[in-house]
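Morning!

As promised:
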Amino acid sequence: MQSLNTEMEKFEVTILGCGSATPTPRHNPSAQIVNIHDKLSLVDCGEGTQMQMRTNRQRFMALRNVFISHLHGDHCLGLVGLISTFALLGRTKDFHVYAHAELQPLLDAQLKLFCHSLGFEVVFHVVEPHKHVLVYEDRTMEVWSLPLKHSMKATGYLFREKQGQRHINREMTDAYGIPVCYLNNIRAGEDWTMPDGRIIPNVRLTTPADPARSYAYCSDTAYYPALIPLLKGVDLLYHEATYDNSKAIKAKIHGHSTAGQAADIAKQAEVGKLLIGHYSAAYDSPALMLNQAREIFQNTIAADEGLTIVVEPHPKNAIPA
Amino acid sequence: MQSLNTEMEKFEVTILGCGSATPTPRHNPSAQIVNIHDKLSLVDCGEGTQMQMRTNRQRFMALRNVFISHLHGDHCLGLVGLISTFALLGRTKDFHVYAHAELQPLLDAQLKLFCHSLGFEVVFHVVEPHKHVLVYEDRTMEVWSLPLKHSMKATGYLFREKQGQRHINREMTDAYGIPVCYLNNIRAGEDWTMPDGRIIPNVRLTTPADPARSYAYCSDTAYYPALIPLLKGVDLLYHEATYDNSKAIKAKIHGHSTAGQAADIAKQAEVGKLLIGHYSAAYDSPALMLNQAREIFQNTIAADEGLTIVVEPHPKNAIPA
């Protein structure tokens, strides 16, 4: 695998909560921060998310949007408190909520009661469940919905970094006397024509762009092989592993996955790394789930509150030296 | 002050959260457990209350009711998560919510969305703000509303233990050969008539009943002297002290109190002990507020998450030896 380019832009995931519906002193309900090039998105917003952001020193006001997977309380009950606090802190920038349509009237009613005068707009974007479509896009990233299979309709999210530009080799551009004002064209792939007409090919002036990375969030979901083609080759996959392998029947009944099932999806989708979470309150530690997942997919790590995972390029995407 | 009778029934307050609206890593939003004779009531239910109950090993399912002071998010946003968890844990006993009327339609809508099938009833009791009336009563306790003065309508609560029975002096009842089946009459104050007609006065057979104790919760409120007669002589008073004395103007604008104002109310109401809380996020520690309050009312303590305060009889209520 390539060593990380020190110029590589930030793409990391911070776990704020990786427990399941029943609260424990060990885990908070679901919430994560996805930081792509210093743009912060929240994925799910269980009760206590705003306190977890404080505890983990996340930049509160930098949050641009939240992507809610489904309308179970442990994935969205922290939303109104978060928005209330934005108001108290004097936010003026719009905040975007991506969720299933049923949340909107309730959110509106709560904001009316708890947040009388917001200095910003809460913009609601309806996410259609059971679809794999582009729900968000900007200059540097895309977010796609992922249909999940749960006890109620549920949607995962796939974060894709857009392909960046090539990196300037300053030694070479200096040697050829290329003016600074032209460097953006070189980054974009143009060759350089010398005053004597010689053409210096771009490949001599630049090093390859960083591979565009991707992160998929799949929680809550039963074992759902239909996801495999949609997750093919993602660099980091968060897949719930509520139960250990002995609880496969219970998992199926409740629309959840075992550790082995999460790892099976990761293996078949040939992802770079698997991150498991959403542990049942019955477990004191995720060790059992981690071991069971690693038997099937070695490159697995266990989510924990406060853990930040840098999304690294998939080993298969390593750039040839 | 009398030494505590070891037979004295439980009356204690456990702080689950004593911060104010903006969350900090130091404090949770408002919530307390009032335990009177092992009957548990919740007072306010800010976001994260259920996690705080777990962390502080409070008996989840023993909660009978919640008394909400007002409809700011930091005093009630934990309610739906708590009720959801009751459902997940298989609760069957009704749960009673005492709050202002505006909460009811929103709570109903949330329960409909987040708690599809409850195995118990959530019974809503409308609390009228600006009134001092009995809102709850059972065999051992009463709860009275207390009008507060805040930026929105707000209601405090006064918990009053009912006067218990006198304590049997077993040595004496044995000496007079009083049968066990008659002891309840003796506890209730009756004298004993000997077979020879002699009357043994009750006071020889019993020791005095424990004094009936009281606890008042006053948050959120500006300095509000109208409270003083309603709080006269309570054993323990929780009074918010959001700010130190230098922030009196800010306190007034936002409908909050300074430490000095809280202590002034305690002093004028001649309460037994003052407990301050609801600290602004601007303070790293409650030390300043505690010192300022003690200058006016010495018997003051500072609330902190996890602290349990035994409600002791007011020094003035000490039973003569």
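Residues 151 and 166 of chain A are 45 Å apart (CA to CA).

Hope this helps with the figure draft.
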